[in-house]
Amino acid sequence: MIRTILIAGACALTLALGAHAEEGPADVHGAALHFLLGKQHPNGGFGQIPDEEPGEVGITAMVLRGLANLPEDLAGEDGVAEAKAKAIEYLLARQADDGSFTKGMNGLGTYRTALTISALVAVDKEKYAAQIEKAAGWLKGNQFNEDESVDESNPHYGGFGYDHGGTKPDADMSNTQIALTAFRDAGISPDDPVFKRAVTFLSRCQNSSETNPGIAKLKPKDDGGFIYDPGLSDNKSSATKHEDGTTSYESYASMTYAGLMSLLYAGVAEDDPRVQAAKHWIANNYTLEENRGLGIRASSPDAAQQGLYYYYQAFAKCLAAVDAKTIATQDGERNWAQDLFEALAARQSDDGSFTNPNSRWWEQDPVLCTAYALNAMDFLRRPTWTSGVRVGGLVDRGARRRRHDHGARARAIARAWRRRSGW
After folding, report:
1. What is this structure's pTM?
2. Secondary element (H or E) of residue 179
């Protein structure tokens, strides 16, 4: 009797899973795509800053890049070509005479210009060569260097900040990695001085005393991860004050993946101690459940959820740059594309969107979070890494798109996979 019940239960489970045998990355990816297509403003922009006209340049550029990099099974979906054309028109209308892309809210010139360069390259690098070249020239001029009366003794030397509108240099890892991505996308050589100067800034953001002696009053830790800013002006992670007057900051995941990616974009060799130290931090802190590091000694219990979707995009970009299907962790080799897909599938809303309950860095905005997720999935669904990627123990064959209840189904399948795998 018991044997009969077990067999019947197993058959029922097999039939239930078999009914969704083709569910997987294409469904979660497609649901996010269709959510975003429904959020484009009539003027072509995406996103919204309160009290300004519809559309935000950076978010629009991020969505456009995501649309331009869609895999073949989604690139031909209804509405994609029209949305791309409208977003391009919106962005090009906002390029200033100096080459930058901006609108309304000041202080975001680096972020907006760099993201727009990457978007236009993804759409058609040759067609928009003039706009890309002009924007890249402006962006190079936004680096803190001798031309800005900032020499190597300054902790911000070689980095990029939100803009030059302030009274002092204020470079950070986030704007720097976005700018370096834009330069790489635009085809600027790692031998260019802009990358060489940037390596100085990147090294100063790394918690590795072997390659970072510290500057100003920063005392690097020795875990190999990255922090936001070596100048101590606006760090995001918890601080440790030392008796000698120096300060150490906790490394955290989004900046560490961004830092490793930036080192590779800048031509730093795989066997360089800085690259190896960053990989060591990743191996010891690999998780997609939180933005690891932000919760250490934080006053808020959910601090590690801050910037989660920014982290997911940085994770995907970085590991695509590493160019390996698996990554070493303290628990063994991990298929990072599958892990990221599982994390996204478990968090997708029924309408295809993503939202972070922790609102820091605008992540209460479903358009922004879904744009991050769309771009992350563009990376993880490249065939090099996703051949055989499974969910719920079932291979995604990408045979067709489904238009019903994507979020709930993806989450249910992800939960089933975790139960069966023992995670």
Report:
1. 0.85
2. helix 173-185
